[in-house]
């Protein structure tokens, strides 16, 4: 779109990663005299959060504009500096067609969260003020952006771990009921997963002779013995599967979502879960193809089980009298949606992996929006308990809000024309014709299960819409969407429609890059 | 046989300066008026700093002394890079411990002159130890390190737990030394020399009738050092000793004492008995796995409301950390010795800085809350934001989570050594332990940022404001500066991983 020279691109990407880190440190310091505004230090720091995340968003958009869309398979904006020669760790950053959409998604969601926080400062029973909140939010953004930009295995791991502490404190300090236990569960699951992943990464690094992801991907498994690849994929896959989360390692997610504050939920669902599937595509797929090939049928089986399990759990929650929580329901629906992503990856076909990457971004947009809306609903009605949400009758009392909620639910169930559709369709098409050497009957069964899952998903989401939006108006009108809420929700809704109507925006970026990751695969 | 040896005084300066300062302090104590006694602490700290500065000319790591006149290649004291780095670690650690002790000795219940003399003597032994290149020098250095430590543990007047802890420490430690000496005598009988270089070539081999004796000697020597390094199952003296000792002494033992034991272990395994790798490799691997598991499990069970729980937690966590430190030593049996040792040295440098930093913050909090409970730390951020941030950073470094980047990379180096040596099972055990340890480190970290407890009804003890002790603040600042520098540029300490140290 616009042409920027190489140095500018490199500096842009470095700034995208470093700026939130500096911002996090700066948030703890008092504001300089020129930047002090009305409302005291708390407003200053909230404004600081919006400014920094906004600047990062502008930079990522510039990066996307400067990205050479004619060769998305190549690593662009690449910088490669020595950092720790002793361990052969390099500050190796770059973007390609796989990571660029995720970078933009992360910057966008974090900016919207900061905006949301500016108008709705975080509250909680014994929550500290907004200063640590903004610092943690920015640290979280730095970690996620670095994860998607890192091209060195150890750097990737460092960035992957960086998000743990901020997310822990976001849940534990600003969360709702049961927040301490949920925060513990979140961090213990992910830490156990990630230390196992570290062993796998080190195994690759030691046996492959380098931690450089580009060089390892180019080697495509050459130089790694079959056993090494099996062990590495097992260890790395386990760590990433906890993060994704893959059934049956998902049980931390519903608790974390239920307890987390709105911004925490949005970022957890919209960005953090993506780190798991991104790692599978970026590391396991190209670096240890034989290991992936061996484990793909099992991954597919767990994915299909997750799709059905997630939707059945949601159906159970939505029943009248089950005492289900709307946030918990969306968390379980995430388990199902991420199951589609995993199924797409497990097919090891271009179509399937493209579908997985598309579904990744779509889930980030839609579920991010859903969590925003549930947060807004809780502000208005005071609860997210599904039993007490009966006959809220949003359509009658606050029509725009109700309409947007219904729109998002329908996008989530995968209506054609909206973002949720393409990714799941491509993943299922991939399962219809999995890569050579994978058992087709097995994948056909997974396909059938996934199809059942889409039906069940439609069922529970429509039930939710009926429960929350429809009914006879009895009470006085509720507060409809306000201007700040439009500002926070509209970009996500617009992008959901855009990605649904014009999927080529994303697929043109990912397809050549996926083809480069899967050499020798025709479909 | 020519018994005269040329002594290069510059090479032995670091331990020598510490020893001379010890004597100067002891004599000065006799002549100084009571009001001037606090000067002794600064004198001791200055001596330690000076000893550390004396390492500067040795940094190339190619100087030797106390060599045999007949055979100049055989030296009892070698200042190679390993020795210089470990000396820097022990002298720096002793310096920080001295800073912690200055406010402690200002109270009347610890006799200042004796305390500083003992601390400096122990530090001089610990500085001598990593440079020792024959078994006799090594054992003497180890005893010079530990003998004053018994007295340090029990030095506080009117303490009930101190003497008991000191006695327990003394008895186990003397037993360990006796066992090690027996092992050394067996090795001498089989190998015919005390120099590491000669033993490495003579053993295994030689008289087949003496092979069993030699193996028994190697095993017994290792047991002796495992005691000093507090490796499980030779660790039972640790919790009581740490609880009974004055806090700075516990910090000193957890870093300098441990470093001395581990350096000795590294020296005897890789330099003296490289031929017995199949014997000590699996043994050290087993010790490492047991040590980290037992240490972390016990730390996990620490009750936050019990008295002294903060120190108890640090004591058990130091046992757990010793397990990680042993991993590269075990891996050294299967790989290039020097590189695996580098991981231990790098990890030990990180550990020394952040563990003493954590002890410093505990000492600062203990000035107000003498019970040293973990629950006293609740809401520390509201009272002392900088101390709380520093302690959080130290704990995250120990746990190995960002933003404690250096802790993470030190663990990566240890993991890499294990994977490189083919110790996959040990790596998995360590991975589980890292996750367990995270629980208690993070629980403590989270406590710092909780809302402060309701103010207790003001008793006479809590009413008086406690003055900030400048040396404590300085120690926290130094440790934090080191940990931050290491985190920004991990290459500073990880450079030892890629180079051969010995």
UniProtKB/TrEMBL annotation, chain B:
GO cellular component: endomembrane system; plasma membrane
Pfam short name (any one): Proton_antipo_M
Protein localization: Cell membrane; Endomembrane system; Membrane
GO molecular function: NADH dehydrogenase (quinone) (non-electrogenic) activity; NADH dehydrogenase (ubiquinone) activity; quinone binding
Protein's UniProt keywords contain Protein biosynthesis: no
Residue intervals passing through the bilayer: 12-32, 39-58, 82-103, 115-132, 138-155, 167-196, 216-238, 250-273, 279-301, 313-334, 346-366, 386-410, 422-442, 463-486
This enzyme's EC code(s): 7.1.1.-
Keywords from the UniProt entry: Cell membrane, Membrane, NAD, Quinone, Translocase, Transmembrane, Transmembrane helix, Transport
Membrane topology, from the record: Multi-pass membrane protein
Keyword Transmembrane: yes
Catalytically driven reaction(s): a quinone + NADH + 5 H(+)(in) = a quinol + NAD(+) + 4 H(+)(out)
Taxonomy, superkingdom: Bacteria
Biological process, per Gene Ontology: ATP synthesis coupled electron transport
Domain NADH:quinone oxidoreductase/Mrp antiporter transmembrane, first and last residues per copy: 132-434
Record family assignment: Belongs to the complex I subunit 2 family.
Quaternary state and interactors: NDH-1 is composed of 14 different subunits. Subunits NuoA, H, J, K, L, M, N constitute the membrane sector of the complex.
Protein's job: NDH-1 shuttles electrons from NADH, via FMN and iron-sulfur (Fe-S) centers, to quinones in the respiratory chain. The immediate electron acceptor for the enzyme in this species is believed to be a menaquinone. Couples the redox reaction to proton translocation (for every two electrons transferred, four hydrogen ions are translocated across the cytoplasmic membrane), and thus conserves the redox energy in a proton gradient.
Protein name: NADH-quinone oxidoreductase subunit N
Organism: Streptomyces hainanensis
């Amino acid at each position: 779109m616009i042409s920027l020279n190489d140095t500018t691109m490199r500096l842009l990407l470095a700034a995208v990663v470093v700026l939130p880190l500096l911002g996090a440190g700066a948030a703890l310091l008092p504001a300089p005299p020129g930047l002090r505004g009305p409302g005291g230090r708390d407003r200053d720091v909230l404004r600081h959060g919006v400014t920094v995340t906004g600047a990062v968003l502008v930079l990522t958009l510039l990066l996307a504009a400067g990205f050479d869309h004619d060769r998305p398979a190549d690593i662009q904006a690449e910088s490669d500096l020595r950092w720790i020669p002793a361990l052969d760790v390099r500050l190796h950053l770059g973007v390609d067609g796989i990571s660029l959409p995720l970078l933009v998604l992360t910057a966008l969601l974090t900016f919207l969260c900061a905006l949301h926080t500016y108008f709705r400062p975080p509250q909680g029973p014994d929550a500290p003020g907004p200063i640590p909140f903004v610092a943690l939010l920015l640290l979280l953004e730095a970690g996620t952006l670095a994860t998607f930009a890192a091209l060195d295995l150890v750097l990737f791991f460092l960035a992957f771990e960086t998000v743990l502490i901020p997310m822990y404190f976001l849940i534990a300090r600003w969360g709702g009921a049961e927040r301490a236990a949920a925060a513990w569960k979140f961090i213990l699951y992910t830490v156990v997963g990630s230390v196992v992943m570290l062993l796998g990464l080190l195994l690759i690094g030691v046996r492959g002779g380098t931690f450089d992801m580009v060089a390892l991907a180019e080697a495509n498994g050459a130089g790694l013995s079959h056993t090494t690849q099996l062990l590495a994929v097992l260890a790395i896959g386990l760590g990433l599967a906890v993060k994704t989360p893959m059934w049956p390692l998902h049980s931390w997610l519903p608790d974390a979502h239920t307890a987390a504050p709105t911004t925490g939920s949005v970022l957890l669902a919209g960005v953090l879960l993506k780190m798991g599937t991104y790692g599978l595509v970026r590391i396991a797929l190209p670096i240890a193809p034989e290991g992936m090939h061996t484990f793909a049928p099992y991954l597919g089986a767990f994915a299909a089980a997750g799709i059905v399990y997630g939707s059945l759990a949601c159906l159970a929650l939505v029943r009248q009298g089950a005492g289900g929580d709307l946030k918990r329901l969306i968390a379980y629906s995430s388990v199902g949606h991420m199951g589609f992503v995993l199924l797409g990856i497990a097919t090891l076909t271009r179509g399937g992996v493209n579908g997985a990457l598309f579904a990744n971004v779509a889930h980030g947009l839609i579920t991010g929006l859903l969590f925003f809306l549930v947060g807004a609903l809780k502000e208005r009605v005071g609860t997210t308990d599904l039993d007490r949400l009966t006959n809220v009758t949003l359509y009658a009392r606050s029509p725009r809000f109700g309409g947007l909620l219904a729109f998002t639910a329908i996008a989530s169930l995968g209506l054609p024309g909206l973002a949720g559709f393409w990714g799941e369709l491509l993943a299922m098409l991939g399962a219809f014709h999995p890569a050579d050497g994978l058992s087709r009957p097995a994948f056909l069964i997974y396909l059938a299960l996934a199809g059942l899952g889409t039906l069940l998903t439609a069922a529970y989401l429509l039930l939710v819409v009926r429960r929350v939006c429809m009914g006879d108006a009895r009470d006085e009108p509720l507060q409809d969407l306000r201007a700040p809420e439009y500002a926070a929700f509209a970009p996500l809704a617009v992008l959901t429609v855009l990605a649904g109507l014009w999927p080529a925006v994303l697929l043109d970026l990912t397809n050549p890059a996926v083809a480069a990751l899967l050499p020798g695969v025709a479909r | 046989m020519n018994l005269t040896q040329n002594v290069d005084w510059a090479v032995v300066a670091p331990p020598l300066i510490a020893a001379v300062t010890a004597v100067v302090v002891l004599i000065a104590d006799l002549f100084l008026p009571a009001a001037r006694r606090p000067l002794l602490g600064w004198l001791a700290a200055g001596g330690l700093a000076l000893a550390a500065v004396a390492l500067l000319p040795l940094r190339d790591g190619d100087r030797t002394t106390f060599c045999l006149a007949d055979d100049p290649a055989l030296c009892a004291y070698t200042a190679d890079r390993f020795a210089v780095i470990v000396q820097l670690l022990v002298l720096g650690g002793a310096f920080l411990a001295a800073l912690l002790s200055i406010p402690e000795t200002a109270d009347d219940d610890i006799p200042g002159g004796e305390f500083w003399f003992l601390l400096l003597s122990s530090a001089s032994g610990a500085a001598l130890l990593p440079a020792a290149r024959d078994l006799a020098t090594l054992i003497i250095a180890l005893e010079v390190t530990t003998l004053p430590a018994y007295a340090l543990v029990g030095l506080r007047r009117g303490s009930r737990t101190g003497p008991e802890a000191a006695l327990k420490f003394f008895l186990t430690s003397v037993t360990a030394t006796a066992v090690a000496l027996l092992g050394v005598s067996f090795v001498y009988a089989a190998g015919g020399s005390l120099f590491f270089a000669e033993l490495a070539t003579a053993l295994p081999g030689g008289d087949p009738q003496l092979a069993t004796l030699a193996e028994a000697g190697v095993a017994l020597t290792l047991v002796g050092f495992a005691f000093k390094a507090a490796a499980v199952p030779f660790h039972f003296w640790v919790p009581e000793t740490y609880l009974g000792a004055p806090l700075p002494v516990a910090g000193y033992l957890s870093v300098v004492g441990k470093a001395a034991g581990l350096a000795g272990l590294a020296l005897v395994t890789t330099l003296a008995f490289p031929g017995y790798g199949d014997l000590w490799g699996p043994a050290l691997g087993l010790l490492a796995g047991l040590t980290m598991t037992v240490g972390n499990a016990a730390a996990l069970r620490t009750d936050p409301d019990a008295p002294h729980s903060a120190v108890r937690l640090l004591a058990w966590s130091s046992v757990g950390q010793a397990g990680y430190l042993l991993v590269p030593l075990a891996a050294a049996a299967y790989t290039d010795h020097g590189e695996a040792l580098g991981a231990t040295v790098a990890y030990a440098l990180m550990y020394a800085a952040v563990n003493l930093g954590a002890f410093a913050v505990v000492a600062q909090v203990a000035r107000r809350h003498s019970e040293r409970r973990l629950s006293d730390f609740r809401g520390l951020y509201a009272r002392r934001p900088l101390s709380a941030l520093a302690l959080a950073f130290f704990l995250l470094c120990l746990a190995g989570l960002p933003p404690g980047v250096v802790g993470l990379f030190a663990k990566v180096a240890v993991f890499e050594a294990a994977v490189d040596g083919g110790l996959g099972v040990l790596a998995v055990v360590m991975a589980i332990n890292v996750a367990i340890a995270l629980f208690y480190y993070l629980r403590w970290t989270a406590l710092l940022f909780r809302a402060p407890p309701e103010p207790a009804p003001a008793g006479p003890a809590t009413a008086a404001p406690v003055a900030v002790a400048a040396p404590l603040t300085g120690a926290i600042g130094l440790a934090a500066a080191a940990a931050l520098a290491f985190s920004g540029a991990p290459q500073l300490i990880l450079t030892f991983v890629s180079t051969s140290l010995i």
